[in-house]
Amino acid sequence: MMEEGKAVPQSHVQEVSGERPKPGFGAKLKAHYKKWWWLHLIFFIASTLIIVLCLVYVAFPRIAQDGVDNSTLEIQDLRFTDPTPDSFHLEQTALLTNHNKYHPRLDAFNASLSIGGSEDKPFAYVEIPAVHATETATTHLDQEVQVVDLEAFIDYNTQLWTNSSVDLVIKGRTKLHEMKFPTTTVDFHKRIDMRGFEGLPGFNVTDFSIKLIPEPDGANMIGTVYIPNPTVLTLTMGNVTFNNFVDDEFIGTSLLSDLVLRPGNNTVSMRSTVNQTLVIEKVTGTYKDGMLPIEVRSNSSIYNGQHLEYFEKALQGSQQHIVLNVGAALAALTGGGSAG
């Protein structure tokens, strides 16, 4: 028993609070990822997949289209042969320059040909062959082409003959392949600045002789015509005839047989049937110096017996003016020479 009056000793154990210390941010984050790691993994995979899909199906087609748009096409050789009133054979060599670091492959595709500003009126369609678009790639066309819009083709040829240049537009749609990327569709739209004939400013008769007795075909003036061709075009035009005038008075016709204009300088034989009586009246009257100014107007272009309207109408818009030394040609009749 305790003795009465003695103090009971107090306990030295302090009472401890029941609240635990709160964990820090790092601990909470660690615990969160430990519990929800699978959810974050799914989110990461889904996000990565979305980014990749956007790159493949959104960004890549745009990159591919930009690459095609930034490429250039230069026509180095263009030949129109075997013409008919509504078709021609086309041979073309062109250089495709790719300014992109990617070198895709383009499938063959059908493309329209038109003039710049009239792309809704193509005059023909051609099959563009498949090409591997390396830094530079050469493409070749060799095919029969049907004229689908005669008026548009006449317009193209008219601009080609009369202007210093004409915009040729080649337009189509094709498939593009690049490495393991999905095949994508791209628009091929090229505007090519083609050099024109500019009205043939160098056209001239370099020499000629007069025949007092016409030859069997009726020709009584034989000569040589110089025709410069500053373009890359070769044109098969058939038999081309011209009407010749002095002071708007008709004096006769000239024929260039089986005319094929090639790039560079062309020298072509000319056979003319002229009204010699009228010519002599001119050189003994108004043009006593014997220098006769002649206006040459295109009349026809005939190949295999068929008129080529797209050449005829184009040439009719381009008249040539030359001066012939008829006095010297008449004097040469007694000396056996010719005049220029």
Helix/strand/pairing category = alpha+beta
How many beta-strand segments? 17
- Regions with pLDDT < 50 over 5+ consecutive residues? 1-5, 47-58
Amount of helix? 25-40%
Strand portion: 35-45%
Termini separation comes to 160 Å
Order of helices and strands: HEEEEEEEHEEEEEEEHEEHEH
Biggest sheet architecture: 11 strands, mixed
What is the rounded Rg? 41 Å
- What average pLDDT do the residues reach? 85
Shape: elongated
Question: So how many helices?
Answer: 5
Notable traits:
single chain, 340 residues, alpha+beta, six-stranded antiparallel sheet
Layout of strands and helices, then pairs:
Blueprint: H1 25-70, E1 72-84, E2 87-97, E3 105-106, E4 109-115, E5 124-128, E6 131-132, E7 136-146, H2 150-162, E8 165-177, E9 184-195, E10 204-210, E11 221-229, E12 233-246, E13 249-261, E14 264-274, H3 276-284, E15 291-303, E16 306-307, H4 309-316, E17 320-325, H5 326-335
Parallel strand pairs: 1-12
Antiparallel strand pairs: 1-2, 2-7, 3-6, 3-8, 4-5, 4-8, 8-9, 10-11, 11-14, 12-13, 12-15, 13-14, 15-16, 15-17
Helix pairs in contact: 2-4
